[in-house]
Amino acid sequence: MGDHAPRGRRLSAPQPETGLFPPRELAAEQIELGRLLFARDCRFIAGGAEPDALPAEGLPEIAFLGRSNVGKSSLVNALTGRRMLARTSNTPGRTRQLNFFALDNRLMLVDLPGYGYAEASKSAVAAWTRLVTHYLRGRASLRRVCLLIDARHGLKEPDRPVMQLCDRAGLSYQVVLTKIDKLAPADRAAIAQSIAGELAVHPAAHPEVHLTSAEKGLGIAALRAGLAGFALPAAPRRDVAAPAVALRQTAR
């Protein structure tokens, strides 16, 4: 699908500072806005294992979706700088509900249950399909899906129906490679270029690929900066000094 570079051409490696492919510079202001947002209070709001148990819509939402054990919960923890915000497990298929986390009351992070777990029962697969399809198709507040892909394995067959679902729903999604610390820099560039080539034929896919490692913190700043653009504006700070001065002047 045109996702491999011709022989003799050097692959353009993602910038180590940003973890973006194709490589590009990020403004210092973007990085700082993302850092400040994700340093704010982030708290668990609700979890739902059935469509009618999901919380009411309000804040703009960013969903994290991917195969079982791809590192969704670890990435949410790394973004927010908290080790135990989202529960992590080495056992595939452990997360079975949608978990909602409010970030500074400006953005909702949604950790979705993983798919593609080979030992899952047919009833479990049907329940996952019903829940996630309902959420992706019917959530008006959903602004972006981060589709997590293990960098060591690339896109697999279970990923493609999810991409097609987003395409049909006109739902913007972006590939986030996880565990890139397990690959050499040249291999990171190769997998990023391969995936970017396949994304080119998907109308709802964002063309830019993020490369991250929750364990090493690679690419986290760039992803924060990108997601911060979906947050509600920060509430203006209240000036508490001015009323006090006014009161003193009135007392005279």
SSE layout and pairings?
Layout: E1 20-21, H1 28-38, E2 42-48, E3 61-66, H2 72-80, E4 98-103, E5 107-111, H3 122-138, E6 142-150, H4 159-169, E7 173-178, H5 185-199, E8 209-211, H6 220-228, H7 241-251
Parallel strand pairs: 3-5, 3-6, 6-7, 7-8
Antiparallel strand pairs: 1-8, 2-4, 4-5
Helix pairs in contact: 1-6
Structure commentary:
The chain is α/β, with parallel strands linked by helices. The chain has one domain: P-loop containing nucleotide triphosphate hydrolases (Rossmann fold, 3-Layer(aba) Sandwich), CATH 3.40.50.300. It has helices at about 30-40, 70-80, 120-140, 160-170, 185-200, 220-230, 240-250, and strands at about 20, 40-50, 60-65, 100-105, 105-110, 140-150, 175-180, 210. Mean pLDDT is about 85; it is low at about 1-10, about 90-95 and about 240-250.
**Helix share of residues?**
25-40%
Oligomer: single chain
Beta-strand percent range: 15-25%
Count all strands and give the number. 8
As for the CATH topology, it is: Rossmann fold
Euclidean distance between termini CA atoms: 79 Å
Strand order of the largest sheet: 1-8-7-6-3-5-4-2
Rg, nearest Å? 20 Å
Query: What integer is the average pLDDT?
Result: 85
User: Largest sheet at a glance?
Assistant: 8 strands, mixed
